[in-house]
Amino acid sequence: MKVKEIAFVGYPVTDLKRARQFYEGTLGLKLTKLFGDEKTAWVEYDIGANTLAIANGHPKWKPSPGGVTVALEVEDFAAAVKKLKESGCTFYTEPAETPVCNLVIVADPDGNSIMIHKRGAD
Question: DSSP string spanning 19-35?
């Protein structure tokens, strides 16, 4: 696997309305993309060349005072998933295709979430 860049940083939230009030109101971030609805959604904020995202709704992705999830952009999503499976890595999610990307969430040796990400179709 060859990591090319950090795709985005994502924070899990429990109350989407409250979180958006903070990110958009308090921090002044401008909404770039919203996938979902007012209760359960993936919300993106482009910041320079990077994106910060907040989301709720996935039972394995919960807020933690211990850190955030980094998304690592890969050249070949299928090859990356194959390598992760061969390594015996714990998968928090199965590989998924969304309207804008392919992704999978795995655990590092301490159980921290790492997202492997590929923009567009693979």
Answer: HHIIIIIIS-PPP-EEE
